[in-house]
Design goal:
By secondary structure, the chain is mostly helical. It folds into 2 domains: about 25-225, no CATH class; about 235-425, no CATH class. About 85% of the residues lie in helices and about 0% in strands. The protein has helices at about 1-15, 15-45, 50-70, 80-120, 120-145, 150-175, 180-200, 200-210, 215-225, 225-250, 255-290, 300-330, 335-355, 360-365, 370-390, 395-425. The longest helix is centred in the middle third of the chain and has 38 residues, at about 255-290.
């Protein structure tokens, strides 16, 4: 028995997948440790209302980034040929530049009118396209690094982003410009991330921007046209579903409730993002490679889910039981409501923890056209439950209803991915012994 356990342990240690996950994961852990370390200071500098504004800004940047790139950055990992992948990277970058320029051409003359209409300040509005530019660039570089297995370098970029974000937010906050400090810090973090990746792979980055071929770019964009058609729609619906509480909570329940929700999400998304970044990126690259090699996919998915379940069940259970006390102690008595929100959201985030790393499996399985259906389901559930909670119950009950609905959709999506992978396995004759 002891020899068997040692044998399994040695297999795990020697696994390329595990080594790469640990390499990337260690950097992401450090990055989140930095974020958590500065959070108690930031919550004492910025008000819940300013956190609500920051949540709104972040939501706008995330949603508009999908439109800016057309989600072509996701496809960089998929082609067998590096030439096609390079063209897709360039398509993503060019699309982002055109979108950002278009936004500023519209905003410069219209900013005062948009500000009056939305009650958002002009500095807030003018920072949004800049946030989209660097968030999009970071995404394109991230998937290029993922394709080439530059996981150590990407880990360092995550640390740089976290450090840059925290440093700028604290510096501006102490200087007294708290109205835009969180927003500028977010943009600065993305700049730090892109700059760190570019510095570490200067020669490779230079080659990416050499030998531009309009024909290659058009052909690559055409070959992966399902991305702006279906993956973009799915990603938009998914992002709107994730961000819809930010937009609805502030209008239905108030900016203070949004601040409580924003802090809870900021803290709770740390482990979810950790897994999505470290496990998810490695999984996506390996899953695509397994498909190209004709290897079985369904057992690979099940194995990953099993490991994630064992890793996550204890910490998420503790979060569910003790988050109110933890938030009150760490962030202060005025943030105890964020602990209540955290306890309510923990089951939903546990299922996100399980399924997010495998969420792009449908891209590899050529099921892009089904993706908008699941994304629409997430959106409908969140929208319906929050509105129902507002009209008939209260803020916390609305969140409970949202969590239950989200868990059901996560389970259904996982079942569909597994069934699709098994059908693909049954139709594959070239299986390894």
């Amino acid at each position: 028995m002891k020899a068997s356990i040692l044998s399994i342990w040695n297999q795990i240690i020697r696994s390329t997948f595990v080594r790469q996950v640990l390499s990337l994961g260690s950097g992401v852990i450090v990055a989140h440790a930095i974020t958590l370390a500065v959070s108690p200071l930031i919550t004492r500098i910025y008000t819940p209302e300013e956190f609500g504004l920051f949540s709104l800004f972040n939501s706008l940047v995330v949603v508009l980034t999908l439109i800016a790139t057309g989600t072509y950055e996701y496809s960089i990992v998929l082609p067998k040929e590096d030439r096609v992948a390079v063209s897709l990277f360039k398509v993503s970058i060019c699309s982002t530049l055109l979108f950002t320029a278009g936004c500023y051409l519209l905003l410069f003359p219209a900013a005062p009118y948009v500000s009056d209409l939305t009650a958002l300040s002009i500095p807030f509005l003018m920072l949004v396209p800049l946030g989209v530019l660097f968030h999009s660039a970071m995404g394109s570089f991230t998937y290029w690094f993922n394709r080439n297995e530059y996981f150590d370098e990407f880990a360092r970029a995550k640390i740089s982003m976290a450090g840059g974000t925290g440093l700028i937010q604290l510096g501006i906050g102490f200087a007294g410009a708290t109205s835009v400090g969180l927003l500028i810090g977010l943009i600065a973090g993305r700049i730090f991330s892109v700059g760190t990746m570019a510095i570490q792979k200067t020669n490779q980055i230079k080659q990416l921007f050499c030998q531009w071929s309009k024909t290659d770019m058009v052909n690559a964009a055409s070959k992966y046209s399902d991305h702006p058609k279906f993956v973009l729609l799915s990603s938009l619906l998914s992002s709107v579903a994730i961000e819809i509480p930010v937009f609805l909570i502030t209008s239905l329940f108030g900016s203070q409730e949004l601040g409580f929700y924003g802090l809870a999400i900021r803290v709770l998304m740390a482990p979810v993002t950790l897994v999505s970044m470290s496990v998810g990126h490695v999984y996506f690259q390996k899953f695509a490679a397994r498909k190209h090699q004709g290897m079985e996919l369904a057992p690979y998915i099940l194995k990953l889910w099993s490991v994630l379940f064992l890793v996550g069940i204890v910490p998420f259970s503790l979060l569910f039981l003790f988050s109110e006390q933890a938030f009150s102690f760490i962030f202060g008595e005025s943030w105890v409501a964020s602990g209540t929100v955290a306890a309510i959201l923990s089951p939903m985030l546990f299922f996100m923890f399980l399924t997010n790393p495998t969420s792009k499996s449908l891209l590899v399985l050529d099921k892009q056209r089904v993706m908008p259906l699941f994304s629409a389901s997430f959106l409908i559930v969140r929208l319906g439950t929050l509105l129902t909670g507002y009209y008939y119950f209260d803020f916390f009950t609305a969140l409970v209803m949202m969590v239950i609905g989200q868990v059901v959709v996560y389970v259904l999506q996982g079942i569909y991915i597994l069934i699709t992978a098994r059908k693909r396995d049954l139709g594959t004759s070239n299986r390894p012994l």
